[in-house]
Amino acid sequence: MLIRDIRAHHIRIPYDAGVASFKQGASAISALDIVMIEVTTDTGLTGWGDAFSYVCPRTSFAAINEMIAPQAKGQQVPDAEGIPAFMEQIQRNLHLFGRYGITMFAISALDIALWDLAARAKGVPLHKLLGAQKRPKIPAYASLMRIGNPDFVAKDCETALSLGYRAIKLHETTSPPVFAARKAIGDNIPLMVDMNCPMDGAAATAFAHECREATPLFLEEPIWPPEDFATLAEVRKAGGLGVAAGENACTAYQFRQMMDAGAVSHAQPSVTKVGGITEYLKVAALADERGVRLAPHSPYFGPGFLATLHLMSLRDDSGFIEVFYMKREASLWGGHVDVDSSGNVAVPDGPGLGIEPDRDVMERYRVA
Ligand SMILES: [Mg+2]
After folding, report:
1. How many angstroms separate the alpha carbon of residue 86 from the centre of ligand 1?
2. How far does the centroid of ligand 1 lie from the alpha carbon of residue 135, in Å?
């Protein structure tokens, strides 16, 4: 089976996130940009992948067409055993463009599509190709955007629970919203606090002490810069709370450095950023080896979200999948991977990623 063509699709789906102030932030995101990759073969099989693309959809789109497609077009489609070597060659060929960011987002997209194809070629769902499924449904956490106002945070937390969610993550950097959330959800609902890298080590440690009574499961990316693993390890030790990081780390090599430094209790590979399923699997193996929990980053709704569901279904831990808390105008998956009233998302069971993207939705919301 040969790779006949590689095509990028840029889809933009508007959303409503209520009072969340994300729209006014520097990145001004008011719609979900999804850059999908479609890999077609000479046998008629098609694989789908996903490149991280918030605020950078045109760049991810161009990277797929300019950097990835020429690497893969005309090549033999690798089977599951062959994908790691195939992708390593592409990583080697593209290393001079940087090992992080856009290059790796585009590499991730191809990798996901190749795994999708490998599973489809065998007629099995991706989770079955990768191992034994331990969970047919994954509990979701509501990943709230940055709100700021404690009353609004409390209200969104209550609404999220009423919709079925059984865990909450905030994107806040002051303690009043954290305590407001804890009060709103009670003592038994896991609460996480994502900070997006604002503080130095001393401030982050002080923030951890300030939040301790609200018992967050972890602080996510408390410090700047994200790759300062030594300082992150100090915050973890002196702050006395769990620390999560990894959505801005690429490849298993950087995760190894992070874990060697003792920087995290929870590793957060993002399948659309880390180098795809291949690198994610290496990170998961490393985490298991070191006793680090996995809390993947997945605030997106394209094929990368489906891939994350399959990957999480292989584990019998209690890990939650991240679901961006917002009303989307449309779904690529016909509602099949929406959060149900018990707060779970069903792992698709069709071949490959398990569901075909809705071509009508793609056409309606197509940018390029
Ligand atoms: Mg985050």
Report:
1. 30
2. 24
Judged against a pLDDT cut of 50, whether residue 26 lies above it is answered with no
Count other Cβ atoms within 10 Å, centred on residue 113. Answer: 31
Closest to 51 in 3D by CA, of 34, 67, 66, 38: 34
Distance CA 13, CA 327 (A): 10
Q: What are 309-341's pLDDT values in tens digits?
A: 999 999 988 899 999 999 999 999 999 999 999
Q: Give me the residues near ligand 1 (ion), CB cutoff below 5 Å.
A: 194
C-alpha to C-alpha distance for 220 and 260, rounded to whole angstroms: 18
Last residue of a domain, one of 69, 89, 123: 123
Rounded average pLDDT over 131-150: 96
Q: Which two tokens stand for residue 360?
A: 């009508």
Distance 247 CA to ligand 1 centre (A): 6
Question: What is the predicted pLDDT for the residue at 21?
Answer: 52
Contact between 175 and 206 under an 8 Å Cβ cutoff? The reply is no
Q: What is the pLDDT of residue 30?
A: 78
Segment 349-358 shows an average pLDDT of: 98
Identity at 179, one-letter amino acid code: F
Span from the CA of 192 to the centroid of ligand 1 (angstroms):
10
Asked if the bond preceding 225 is cis, omega within 30° of 0, the reply is yes
| Rounded CA separation 177/257 (Å) | 32
Residues 279 and 160 in one domain: yes
204 shares a domain with 115: no
| Average pLDDT of span 118-147 | 97
* CATH number for 22: 3.30.390.10
For residue 48, give its domain range. 3-123
Beta strands (DSSP E) in 27-68 are 31-41, 46-51
Spacing, Cα 75 to ligand 1 middle (Å): 36
Domain end position, chosen among 123, 151, 169: 123
Using the mean position of ligand 1's atoms as its centre, give its distance from the Cα of residue 297 in Å.
7
From the CA of 351, how far away is ligand 1's center (Å)? 30
Ligand 1 centroid – CA 98 distance (Å) = 22
